[in-house]
Amino acid sequence: MARTRAIRTSSSSNAALAVALLLMTLVGQSYGQLQLGFYIGKCGKNNVEKVIFDIVKQAFDRDNRVVASLLRLQFHDCFVRGCDASVLLDGRGSEKVASGNIGVGPYDLIDACKDSLEQICPGVVSCADIIVIATRVAVFLAGGRWYRVEVGRRDGVISLASEAEANLPASTISVPNAIDVFRRRGLNTQDFVLLLGGGHTVGRIHCSFVMERLYNFQRSRGSDPTMNPTTFSSLSTTCPRSGSNNFVFADQTRGSEFKVDKAFYQAIRQGKGILPIDQEIARHPRTAGIVRRLSMTGDFTFEFPRAMVKLGRVGVLTGVRPFPINDLPVLGRARASSSSTTTLAIVLLCMTLVGQSYGQLKQNYYAGRCSANVESVIYDIVSKAYQTDKTIVAALLRMQFHDCFVGGCDASILLDGSNAEKNAPSNGSVRGYELIDAIKARLEQLCPGVVSCADIIVVATRVAVALAQGNWYIVETGRKDGYFSSITEAEKNLPPPTISVSNAIRLFGSKGLSANDFVLLLGGGHTVGAIHCSKFLDRLYNYQNTGRADPSMNSATLTSFRQRCPSTGSNNFVYADQTVGSEYRVDNGFYKAISLGKGVLEIDQRIASDVQTKSTVSRLAYSGDFATQFGYAMINLGRVGVLTQGPVRRNCRRNN
C-alpha cells in the first residue's frame, strides 16, 4: 500500500535542516495556517468532515471502544513531533512499533477515511487532519460536546520509535514531571488534567499496568494505600497476582465507562483511580483543586473541548502538500539538498507571520478575567429557558442578526429609549430581552463590569443553537458595548421580507458576508420559529398586486396557509420551516421545504429559484453540509462591526 522513500541528508544540509525543524516548532505555536472550514471548496462539493463523520459513526455503532482508541491515537501522535500523523507510518523503526504505542489504533479506521477521501478528492486531505476530525466525532458520539476543529495540517515524513519512547509520558510519571512535559508542548496544568481525564473517562487498561499498585506498590509488597478498598478487591479479582491478560475500565464509575463525562474525576477522588498518575492528580496540590472543580461542576463539558483544540495545535505543519495515498512515506531517509532545505526554512518562517486577526476578539477571552466560567453560566441560564420555551432559539437567532446588522455586534439593540433600535417597526417582534437581563445580572454578581452585553448575545445564541440540535460552534469574545441606538439606523440596515436576492447579497456584502453566508443565515434563522400572518398575506391573496397567490407556492401549502391566515386578517403564526417534525430543530429541513415551494416569506422562496443561490440551497437541502457551514456563518456574523475598545455596560438596557 505504501512505498518507501529514502531520505539522505548530507552534513552540509544538517544545519539548515535544524533551522527548519526549529521553525516548524514556531509554526505550531502560532497555529500556522490552520483554519476552520479549510477544505470548503477544496474537495469539490463534498463535505470532508461529513465523510469522516459517517465512517466513524459506522465504526462506533459496531464498537464504541473506538472512542478511547482515537483519543489515544491523537494524543500519541501530537506528543511526538506534533500533530503530523507520523504515528501512522509503517517501518521497523517507526513510532508505531515503540513500546509506548503498543495497542494504539485504530489504523484501519483512519485508512478507511483516507481511502474514501482519496476517491473524491485525491491528494487533498491530510492524514493529520483525519486523526483530529475523527477524534472529535468520536468524542461527540460518546456524549461529549461537539467542538470546533481547525484544519490545514500537513503530514510529517519522519517517524522514529526512539522519539516516541523519549516523548510519551509513562503511566508512572509524577505530576510535576507530567506538567513539565505538557508545558514544553504549549499546554498548561489544566490542559494536562483535562486531557488525562478525558482520555481515561473511556476505554480500558491492561492488567499489566495495574499489577504494581495492587501487589508491590513502591516495592512494599503491598497495595497502594490510596486505593479504595472496594476497588482493590474488584481489581485483584480481575487481575490476580499470578498474572492475567484481562482489562479493567479506566473510569470506575458504573454506567460511565463509555461516556466522555466528568465521572472519572469523581472516581479518582474516591480512590478509584487505575494508573498511579490517575490517583496522584487527585491528591497533588498542583492538580487536586482542578480535579475537585471538574468533579463537582459542569466545567468539564466545556473545558475538555478547549484542551482538545489546543492539543490539535501542537507542532503542526502547514503549507506543504499532503501525500497522496499511493505515495504515503514510510520511515527511511530522503535526499535533500542544502538549498532546498534552506528554502523550506524560509517558507516555514513565512508561515509564522501568516494569520487572520479580527480586532482583539479571541476564543475564551474571559478566562482569568472572571472567577466563574462565563460560558458555563450563560449555558445554564439559556438551558433552563429552553426547557420551558423552545421558541427562545428563534428569538436569540433573530436578536443577534438584528443587533449585528445595525452598527455591528455591539448590543445596541438592547438599549431602552423612545428612539432606540428596539422600537423600530422591523424590531417589533424581537424578544429575549429578559433572558439577556437575567444572564447579565448573574454575571454582574460574579464579576462586575467584565462581561459585555454584546458577548452575552453571541454566546447565548450559540447555546440555543446547540440545544436545538445544531452544531456547537466556536464563539470569539472580547466585544465591547455600543452606546448609540437609533430607529433610523435599524430601518435603513435591516432587510425587509420582500427584498430581492441581488439586493440581499449586496447588503450582506456590505457587512463583509458572502452570498453563501446570506443563504446560511437566512435559512438558519428560519429553520426554527414562527412568522406572523401579516408578513406574507400578500403572497396568499394579492401577490405583486395581481389579486392572486404567488404561483411559486406549493398548492397544498397555499391551502394550509389560507386556512391559518384568512384574507380578513388574523393574529396567527405559521412555522417558518414547513418540514413536519423540524419546526424547532436547527437543521436543513428549511432548505428541503423551500425546494418544494413551501417557503413562507417571499425571500425564502426566491433563494430556491434565483440563479445566484439555488445551487447552494440544493446542496444544503440534500447533503449534510448545513450543520457545519451554518456554524461558520454564525462566526462570521459575530465578527461584523465589533468594538474591542470602550465600555462594558453594567445594565444592558442603558449606558453607564
Amount of helix: 40-55%
Largest sheet: 2 strands, parallel
**Whole-number radius of gyration?**
27 Å
Shape: globular
CATH topology of the largest domain: Peroxidase, domain 1
- Distance between termini? 67 Å
- Low-confidence segments: 1-32, 320-358
Strands of the widest sheet, in order across it, are: 1-4
Average pLDDT taken over every residue: 82
Q: What is the topology?
A:
Blueprint: E1 3-4, H1 11-30, H2 48-62, H3 66-78, H4 107-120, H5 127-141, H6 161-167, H7 175-183, H8 189-200, E2 204-206, H9 211-215, H10 229-238, E3 247-249, H11 263-269, H12 276-281, H13 288-296, H14 299-311, E4 329-330, H15 338-352, E5 362-363, H16 374-388, H17 392-404, H18 433-446, H19 453-467, E6 476-477, H20 487-493, H21 501-510, H22 515-526, E7 530-532, H23 537-541, H24 555-564, E8 573-575, H25 589-595, H26 602-607, H27 614-621, H28 625-637
Parallel strand pairs: 1-4
Antiparallel strand pairs: 2-3, 5-6, 7-8
